[in-house]
Amino acid sequence: MDSVVTLNRMPMRHRLVDREPWHGRGLRILTTDKYLAFYLPVEAQGMVVVIRIMYSGRDVIEQLTEMGEPK
Fold first, then answer.
1. What is the DSSP secondary-structure string of 30-53?
2. Is the distance from CB of 39 to CB of 28 less than 8 angstroms?
3. pTM over 0.85
4. 70 Cβ contact list (under 8 Å, min separation 6)
5. Cα separation of 13 and 32, whole Å?
6. What is the mean pLDDT of residues 37-59?
7. Residue 28, SS3?
């Protein structure tokens, strides 16, 4: 959670998810310890929206697919 809190400073510093449709929607990924945090920067409002935090050992693409396409 400490790493997630730092997203309010320079949220664009983390990489975009490589696959579509998430890449095109701006979904970013923060890797910390054994976890992955997926988030969307909302620059107009100066905030980020954390979409999901998951254990890094899981099949990331499968988990994102189960979440559905970002809106």
1. EEETTEEEEEEEEGGGTEEEEEEE
2. yes
3. no
4. 21, 22, 25, 27, 40, 51
5. 14
6. 90
7. strand
Q: Is the pLDDT of residue 2 over 90?
A: no
Separation of alpha carbons 68 and 71, rounded Å: 9
The domain of 35 spans 2-67
Task: Count the domains in the chain.
Answer: 1
Instruction: State both tokens at 49.
Output: 């929206």
Query: Residue 39 forms beta bridges with which residues?
Result: 28, 50
* Two structure tokens written together for 14: 């983390």
The angle subtended at Cα 50 by Cα 19 and Cα 31, nearest 5°, is 60
